[in-house]
Amino acid sequence: MKFPLSWLKEYVDFEDTAAGLADRLTFAGLEVESIETLGGIFDGVVVGEITQIEPHPNADKLRLCTVEYGAEETLRVVCGAPNAAVGGKYPFAPVGTTLPGGITLKKAKIRGEVSMGMLCAKDELGLGEDHSGLLVLEASLRPGTPLSDVLGPPETVLELEITPNRPDCLSVIGIAREVAAIYGSELKLPSVELNESGDPVTDFVSVDVQDPEKCPRYTAHVLKNVKVGPSPDWLKQRLEACGIRSINNVVDITNYVLLETGHPLHAFDATLIRDGKIIVRRATQGEKFITLDDVERELTDGMLVIADPEKAIALGGIMGGANTEIKDDTTTILIEAATFEPSGIRATSKALGLYTDSSYRFQRGVNADSVDWAGRRAAALTAELAGAEICKGRVDAYPVPKTKRQVTTRWKPVCDLIGLDVPIETMKEIFRALELSVLESDDEKAVLEIPTFRDDLTREVDIIEEVARMHGVDKIPEKLPIVETVAGAHDDRIRAVTICRKNLVGLGAREIMNYTLVSHPLLDLFGTENRSAREELPHPISAEQSVLRTSLIPQMIESLGRNKSRQIDEAVFFEIGRTFVKTEAGTVQTEKVCLGLMGPAGRGALDKQRAVSEEEVFLWLKGLVEQLLAAQNLLRVKFQSLEHAPAFEADRAVKVLSGKTELGVIGLINSKARKEWRLNDPVGVAELNLEPLISNVWKRSEVKDIPLYPAVERDYAFIVDESVRNEEIIKVINRSAPAELEKAELFDIFRGKPLEKGKKSLAYSFVYRSAKGTLTDDKVNAFHEQIGKKVCAAVSATIREN
What we know:
The chain is α+β, with helices and mostly antiparallel strands. The protein has 20 helices and 39 strands. A hairpin with a 4-residue loop joins strand 18 (304-307) and strand 19. Helix 11 (424-433) crosses helix 12 (460-471). It is elongated.
């Protein structure tokens, strides 16, 4: 938020320097980023009028201008500005003048022609960086008038960093309200008395809001006999000090009121609105619309447009349309003052890549209650500066008026949380200064009514923060922290998480960390079924950080993708972090562990060039998970197929269980999500709940005797249907296994010739050992044949001979 100090002082009186004000604002939570001085002491610079222009004999782009500047004689200067014209009034600095930058002008010869001074652009006067042409002054000014009389003294401009929860401070009046509270002054608002005449506004316009949820309030004023032209110098200078280019008086007024009140406005050429009907509706899918920047944009059905019966005429809350633009011959205008739902504006701006001062404010929230005041202010200024006639009344579509919130605040917690004893009367004075009405009060608490422009005050702790910042955070005494010994307390959980982290690192994974805030489009890549479970921020910093993550998987894939784009072809990452799911009972936080794997991470150094297959990636990741669970002392681990998992490819995901406890999921990420980051090869991800993962860390493992007798190994390769899973065969093996079977595991999967289509070979290794003596081949063969027969019978398998 950028504004000149002189503008602020029109609304609030205070005695302080710019630096002193900056300190007070910063300590009150409104950080001042910079203090800049525009302009300077223009000694010797006067208003000059060009009376004659001749071509330069030695340069095509230069001209010889004769300038009258209030002296008896005229002077000739060499000028290359494209906007220099006979009869025009511009700043003129004759020879001997020292400009704000410290340069003293001397008589000069430019390409063979003598120049006796300089016609000045803005940057040459220290009024900005614009060097596109001469600074044009009002035609009514008399040549020779000192420029300091025209432009006034140097202007001090402050720039503030406004946090997302304070949209009320994105205006000069909002800042003035804060300054009034800080210095104990009164807020002075300009009058918005309207001199209405002519026909009622309803004779010219009607408003139909078809989506009141997206547009809670829409007001319209109609003005006739408008004279579109240049804005007065004071208005141009004020806008330019805030970084906004002057266009014409009507458009400048809407921008001025935007900066003054924080309410974005838009002016339409009312004669171009078909039948005078304003319809606030959602766009149709694929609808084309040309915005004021002359760019044709394709809209989607989730975007809000302002339309007439034939066409869209504005993107609601973002930008107007070229088809109703204010032009020099416009005589009747409609001034729109409205509010729009923040998340819709945020989504539309991001989708179209279109960000404006209006969308910036609507994304953070605009107070519906003061919309009418802003519209009236714009109408009054248009009547004053453009000679407009204001039609009687206004159209105001406001079906559900905003109600004021009440917050109960207890006196003791205020002092306890701040760490400072603040008298009750002092707190009440702070409330009055902040326009928080005290409805009820006793020795223990007060019930406050919150003004509608303070949407950020919803809880007692918010009120405590207001007391702290207004009373002065610099007054809070410094205290050393106190360490207390709590009987029975321990840090077992912290150490358990640390052990889990070390185990993951020991398995070759690298830890990553991400913010807990993500965007809807990122989450949508992994499924849109549970959008209602997402917790949105009321005042997000940006669309990319507008919702709390419901899973660690999206950011894991994003991290893998970013590494892939930087020539990292293989990686194993893990993250331990919180996820958030919104329920009827409130937002549930769950800590999870996410593992992500891409590339040939499971191969040796000499076997990295071959493309990885889905099976390889899945089995590598499954092996990592199994080793992690074993290291965490989780037993009886099993995997079950997961039929519906939008984040994963179809039939490429399984649930992980330990006994009856569901630990999480493992799977291969869907192709749509992979393509977003150009991940062409399979990518595996596992997401596990942290609590069961660390629940057995401190469990003592059973000690087993060291085997005294040798083990005997055997293999089997079963030819089975493609639908048969490893889990089914392992179950059969475990049921039919003798006590001497120490281990059985899958070590190879084969498809192709000579096997029939729809068949695959699953090869298993078996380890037999007896605690009582050395096993003979005959005994092992008998055990092995029995297991082979059971498996063949259970899953209709045949034993592969070669």
